[in-house]
Amino acid sequence: LVGRPSICHCRMCQKAFGGLFGPLVTSHDGHWTRGKAKWFESSNVARRAFCPDCGTPLAYETRYGLELAIGAFDDPAKVAPLIQVNLTDKQPFFDGLTSLPVKNDASDEWLDFLAGVHSRQHPDHDTENWPLADNDLEGTNDEGNGDE
């Protein structure tokens, strides 16, 4: 079902994933196990799929084939990247990220906050139902990003 897992550093993947890279794995004869993806034309040669309910990036497709987002798998650790591609767009600080200091915030306030988090994204297992979004997004501003 899957082939070469990779990390793509191109700017299109950075923007599509909202991160520093796109973790992708080649798919051979794959199919969606839940729901139906929505597609958009991200360039003149590619289109990208995302979940229409939560916005999660799901796939990238060109005439050469389909690549699935590793982070969307139920167990992404089983699809560990083997190569990096498009290194000319790799962010200059990327290689130093693992040497950054680690902040282990186990304060009571932070732990209480985490205990109250109820994810509205699909869980890492098959299920008929999961918590759907409601209109009571506690602690968020009008844009829904929770920063203010």
Care to describe what's here?
Residues 1-91 form the CENP-V/GFA domain. It holds the Pfam family GFA. Belongs to the Gfa family. Residues 120-148 are annotated as: Disordered. One of its GO terms (molecular function) is carbon-sulfur lyase activity. The chain is α+β, with helices and mostly antiparallel strands. The chain has a domain at 2-91: Metal Binding Protein, Guanine Nucleotide Exchange Factor, Chain A. Helices cover 10% and strands 24% of the residues. The protein contains two helices and seven strands; from the N terminus they run E-H-E-E-E-E-E-E-H. The protein has helices at 11-17, 108-115; strands at 2-8, 22-27, 38-41, 47-50, 57-62, 65-69, 83-85. Strands 3-4-5-6-2-1-7 form a seven-stranded mixed β-sheet. A hairpin with a 6-residue loop joins strand 4 and strand 5. The radius of gyration is 18 Å and the shape is globular. It starts with a strand and ends in a 33-residue tail after the last helix.
Strand and helix map with partners:
Blueprint: E1 2-8, H1 11-17, E2 22-27, E3 38-41, E4 47-50, E5 57-62, E6 65-69, E7 83-85, H2 108-115
Parallel strand pairs: 1-7
Antiparallel strand pairs: 1-2, 2-6, 3-4, 4-5, 5-6
Labels describing this entry:
about 150 residues, alpha+beta, Metal Binding Protein, Guanine Nucleotide Exchange Factor, Chain A, seven-stranded mixed sheet, 2 helices, 7 strands, about 25% strand, globular, disordered C terminus
